Amino acid sequence: MTAGPVPPLAIHTRIRQEIERRIRSGEWAPGHRIPYEHEWMASYGCSRMTVNRALRGLIDAGLLESRRRAGTFVAAPRFDRAALEIPDIREEVARRGLAYRLELLRTERRTATDADQRLLRLDVPGDVLAIDCLHFAGDDPYALEFRLINLAAVPEAAERDFSDEPPGSWLLAHVPWTEAEHRITAVAADAAIARQLAIAPASPCLALERWTWRGSERITYARQTCPGTRHALVAHFRP
Questions:
Q1: Would you say the pTM of this structure is higher than 0.90?
Q2: pLDDT tens for residues 162-171?
Q3: Among 30, 32, 124, 199, which one is least packed by beta carbons within 10 Å?
Q4: Is residue 121 part of a domain?
Q5: Cα angle 222-180-111, degrees, rounded to a multiple of 5
Q6: Are 161 and 151 spatial neighbours (Cβ–Cβ below 8 Å)?
């Protein structure tokens, strides 16, 4: 039996997708005021209710924020929801006055395996981008990273050449998120990790795992393993 024609997207969905695309591309950065409701109404030939439905969905997801009498703006990431700020390794290395270098070990686009689904906490399988890379500070390995990117949430990642920009740096700059979770554990380096980090087998390491999502949509899972003798986690706070 021949399938019927695919129904067109609802107008509120098209508006939402346009806004998300402009945020993801970096065209609209945090703090940018998006067009007023009447401008969307004129552009799409729709009612105020339709526009409001699209904007309300993005506000609820944390991508936009409404400011009374000022308009609707691209929201900044909610760093306060995470136990730690999301680090940009390239910036960390630069702050130490060292030259940063990235060695891309592997990239693979694939249908999520059972293990991928568990790590990304996906309810249904889909395409993911798996990345292994090694960050250097000067001549020394700084961190070994394994990352999964949910291509349903970030399809542009499939076309990126991460050999010229670390995946974490690119995601922070181009993909808005609303929540993050960190888990930090102490691990002993196995033979493969020891070889890549240029340390002795069984050396103590810090493993930082991180999940980020937008609303209910999973964006990425990352695990960064660092030599314990070269890293410390510091938090400064007041009661």
A1: no
A2: 988 899 999 9
A3: 124
A4: yes
A5: 45
A6: no
